Amino acid sequence: MATILIIDDDDAFRDGLAETVRDLGHTPLEARSGEAALESLREHPMPDCIFLDFRLPDADGLSVLESLRGLTGPQRVPVVMLTAYATSDNTIRAMRLGAWEHLTKPVGRDEIARLLERILAARVDAPAPEAAQAFAEEPSSREPQLLGISEAMRDVQKRLGRAAGTNSTVLITGETGTGKEVAARVLHRASARADGPFVAVNCAAIPQDLLESELFGHGKGAFTGAHAERRGRFEEAHGGTLFLDEVGDMPLAMQAKLLRVLQERAITPLGTSRTIAVDVRLVAATHRDLPGMVAAGTFRQDLLYRLNVIPLYMPPLRERIADILPLAEHFLVALAGPSDEARKHLSADAQRLLVSFTWPGNVRELANAIERAHALASSSLLTREDFAFLFDSGTHPADAIPASLLELPLNEALAQLERASITRALALADGNRAEAARRLGISRQSLYTRLASLGLSDSDA
User: What's the number of CA atoms in the CB half-sphere (13 Å) around residue 293?
Assistant: First the structure.
């Protein structure tokens, strides 16, 4: 039996969660505010787990989380953050502060049972594990945002939040257009280095014979045309983050020099004998298969080990269908600016087209498509015809999805597509639900929930 502290000012939700905890054989403690919870913790033994709401009457849930860390230490008591509206920002900040999990209300009994089982099983001398309203609650910002409400993107946001609390090297992988640089900038902004510089270098865009000078700098006369000393990007990023995009395109000779810098934390500008210590957090990104390149001898294995300390995979848009329409609406709002009169909307047939399109260019292609349709459409309602230019790419959605499906109401079409995807994954996995969930890119718990909502069983596969 465990003691579970629930901090939430919503009496109905708190009482319901307490009843669930009690039914599961545990002892619930309740607090309506952050101050009441902290006072209780100062006077009583620490609970085994804490459920903490983001919005409290006397304090922000994140500030309470920081106070809890001061009382219990970052790893002693697992804290589960609860919110009615999950945003990329509050998810990342919660995980950055050491939250165990971040759940969106309402939370079902089975989910609570599974979560407590995981937490209590890991409580025996073990640290915490590595660990909609679309974007309506996202704070407006000119800074890049890692937006997404799909389970795949929520996992990315959580991992990024955890990574922000460390100084370790991060390797971001994923297809072109998935937002790797956006993720790097969000990581920098959420980290302790946020006040330092963020310096981005595209390794594929710089000629090989100039890359060393670009990264490490050079002395006067180091080569023809070097009329003065020049600081390199490592030195410019001192105290901040250096983002090496397309690191898989770096030549082998340069890979060896980068490895040495990562080991020694110092650079030697080209054409000099000076050694300059650098304090830089390195974030690398690539769309290439680095393990495959290692096998082919075109990428150093020891460098891959150095880069891949914290891996972060950015899923393609076709694997996060739930994000397509919210992202499209987000882009439309941004294009309209402060004027509601300039706002354009998507018709039902346009929505069906967008969710059925394969988006080989991912989020970048979606953003460009929305901007093009917004600029050229004569009406405030964007229809399927306004996106006809997508067909010119040779990836007509009908190639992958039957035309009959595209004529259905959106919710019904998505349900049929989900049913077909799950049935196929179960068949390919011979009924193994864990393997089917892996193929679908979702958790087993999510698969169980979807099977139940669709009325599917293994025998249906």
Answer: 19
- CA nearest to 272, candidates 221, 215, 206: 221
Q: Is 26 helix (H, G, I), strand (E, B) or coil?
A: coil
Q: How far apart are alpha carbons 207 and 205 in whole angstroms?
A: 7
Tokens 């394969």: give the residue.
358
Query: How far is the C-alpha of 258 from the C-alpha of 272, rounded, in Å?
Result: 17
* Whether pTM exceeds 0.70: no
The domains found in the chain, sorted by start residue, are 3-154 (3.40.50.2300), 166-313 (3.40.50.300), 317-406 (1.10.8.60), 410-460 (1.10.10)
- Give 164's pLDDT tier (boundaries 50, 70, 90): very high
Contact 279, 236 (CB under 8 A): no
What H or E segment, with its residue span, contains residue 243?
strand 241-245
How many other β-carbons are positioned within 10 Å of the β-carbon of residue 120? 16
Yes or no: say if 107 and 72 are a contact pair by the CB < 8 Å rule: no
Helix H segments across 288-396?
290-296, 301-307, 324-336, 348-356, 362-376
SS3 state at 268? coil
Rounded Cα distance between 278 and 266, Å, is 5
Compute the C-alpha angle 166/172/299, nearest 5°.
110
pLDDT at 294 over 90: yes
**Angle formed at CA 144 by CA 139 and CA 146, multiple of 5 degrees:** 75
User: How much is the pLDDT for 127?
Assistant: 32
In whole angstroms, give the CA distance from residue 304 to residue 418: 36
Q: At what angle do helices 444-454 and 410-428 cross, to 10 degrees?
A: 120
Report the amino acid identity of residue 188.
Answer: H
